[in-house]
Amino acid sequence: MATLFTLIPSSNSTFLNPFKTTQHSKLHFATPSPTFKNPLSIRCFRPPETDTPPEIQKFWGWLSDKGIISPKCPVKPGIVPEGLGLVAQKDISRNEVVLEVPQKFWINPDTVAASEIGSVCNGLKPWVSVALFLMREKKLGNSSSWKPYIDILPDSTNSTIYWSEEELSELQGSQLLNTTLGVKELVANEFAKLEEEVLVPHKQLFPFDVTQDDFFWAFGMLRSRAFTCLEGQSLVLIPLADLWVQQANHSPDITAPKYAWEIRGAGLFSRELVFSLRNPTPVKAGDQVLIQYDLNKSNAELALDYGLTESRSERNAYTLTLEIPESDSFYGDKLDIAESNGMGESAYFDIVLEQPLPANMLPYLRLVALGGEDAFLLESIFRNSIWGHLDLPISPANEELICQVIRDACTSALSGYSTTIAEDEKLLAEGDIDPRLEIAITIRLGEKKVLQQIDEEFKEREMELGGYEYYQERRLKDLGLAGAQGEKLPWIGEV
After folding, report:
1. Is 249 annotated as a binding residue?
2. Mean pLDDT of the chain
3. Total-model pTM
4. Alpha helices, DSSP H only, in 323-434?
5. Which residue of 90, 133, 324, 372 has the fewest CB atoms within a 10 Å radius of its CB?
């Protein structure tokens, strides 16, 4: 049987666009890397610890000295169950402004360009230049004007980019493993290029050892804390505000998206911009304030970005990447039809647990599988109407083929895991698991459930092949040559 599609690991990350085509493998499913968006919702969680470490006190004092916060600020940093977060100092009402951070205290490509290393960062990708700036400021220690902020950044997170080989082995067979390895390879390649073009030739600006581990640290900080779709800003770190971002709330009871932040002018006659954050839900004094960052992210995206997962079923998703093979005899015709309908040689479909198949997935599958006696539909006379035909079953052979290929792909993918669904569910039920192992189990369990769902759906389609109405039957009805049940009508004049 001919291969109908290629499944390509992919990423939609705003600052990792080159990763879109880094790995190619046939009959594998692909997990999308995260895209930052700005819907959020905030809720209170269990009360934080009251003891505040010295570095947090210094950070708060620095914010106060810079005029970013005042004694009336409704939030403050604090140690919370997840690490460092924000705590309400008073009852906060809905839509109340909880903080405003002026542009001069943002870290973005403009900050880098205006810094001592700005002249050597020309031509670097925005995220690479900001990562380099972040690394350098950390290495400068007491000489850095950003030290109070740098000191509160963690050494790492539970993001899969920081996992050891042994920890990554728990993701065997998963999409997330492929995506993580691809990201690590890309970051390593970027560092090698950075070392050759910037670090070594400009030792006077970097009079200290800068390692690949340092670069991964900076990358992880950007991945988990940066805002990437603010108006006019491709990538920006905002001290204090990023305590919301890095504490992506994984509570399953928050489901409503909110738009709570904006960039606006500092005043009527001021050209300076400020980042303004409003609280979309009431929070009581003393409670932790958390974020639900992008309700559409999958668990794989949350694990890669923040090092966490969530129990809601809709967090479990696959991106099925279908591709029209160039070896197809009708490659040109099929590509033309796909492009005429807003698609292309490759098509990406997010399949979510307990939700219907994505729109256009079945039409695209039928197009890729089209051939044999059905190939006449590829002729130019049908070009304006074929997508409507593909929305419904074309022929028993075409429908059976897409079912077989999808089911074979699911079987192949499921065979790549070292555990079963039942075994993973048992491990989670036992509790008291290392956080990274719990993430790995949750990811692979969710992926297997989605694979199982896909297989079951196409198995049902296989069993119902004899009950579908196909193109020829529909055409006969349109011509008045078949009845409502598909029975052929006698010709005019026949007795």
Report:
1. yes
2. 82
3. 0.82
4. 331-340, 361-369, 386-390, 396-414, 421-430
5. 372
The structure tokens 């409003």 sit at 278
Active-site residue identified among 149, 162, 259, 293: 293
The helix/strand/coil state of 97 is: strand
Give yes or no: 293 in active site: yes
**Angle, alpha carbons 182-185-22 (nearest 5°):** 50
Structure tokens at 322: 């279908």
The DSSP symbol for 19 reads: G
Q: Residue 82, annotated ligand binder?
A: yes
In the chain, the amino acid numbered 434 is D
Confidence of residue 483 (pLDDT cuts 50, 70, 90): low
Q: Which two tokens stand for residue 352?
A: 């979510």
Residue 83 annotated as part of some ligand binding site: yes
Q: How far apart are CA 153 and CA 150, in angstroms?
A: 5
Q: Is the separation of the CB atoms in 177 and 304 below 8 Å? A: no
Domain boundaries, the chain: 17-30+316-478, 75-305
Residue 293 is assigned to a ligand binding site: yes
CA 347 – CA 317 distance, rounded (Å)? 16
What CATH superfamily is the domain 75-305? Answer: set domain protein methyltransferase, domain 1 (3.90.1410.10)
Q: How far apart are CA 475 and CA 478, in angstroms?
A: 5
pLDDT class of 22 with cuts at 50, 70, 90: very low
Main-chain dihedrals φ then ψ at residue 101, nearest 5 degrees: -120, 115
Q: Which residue in 110, 125, 112, 135 sits closest to 199, CA to CA?
A: 135
- Distances in Å between the Cα of 225 and the Cα atoms of 21, 81, 189, 482 are 25, 18, 22, 62
pLDDT, mean of residues 460-480: 89
The single-letter code of the amino acid at 421 is: I
Give CA–CA dist 302/371, Å, rounded.
41
- To the question of whether residue 261 is assigned a binding role by annotation, the answer is yes
Taking each helix axis as running N to C, give the angle between helix 175-194 and helix 126-140, from 0 to 180 degrees, rounded to the nearest 10. 70
- d(C-alpha 372, C-alpha 365), whole Å: 15
Is the four-CA dihedral 348, 219, 105, 286 of positive or negative sign?
A: positive
The percent of residues in the chain predicted with pLDDT above 90, rounded, is 56
242 is in an annotated binding site: yes
Q: Enumerate residues 6+ apart whose C-beta is below 8 A from 298.
A: 31, 32, 315, 316, 317, 350, 352
Q: Which CATH number fits domain 17-30+316-478: 3.40.50.300, 1.10.10.60, 3.10.450.50, 3.90.1420.10?
A: 3.90.1420.10
Let me know: does 259 contact 51? Beta carbons within 8 Å.
no
Is the predicted pLDDT of residue 140 greater than 60, yes or no? yes
149 marked ligand binding residue? no
Who wins on pLDDT, 383 or 4? 383
Indicate the angle between helix axes 435-463 and 175-194, nearest 10 degrees: 130
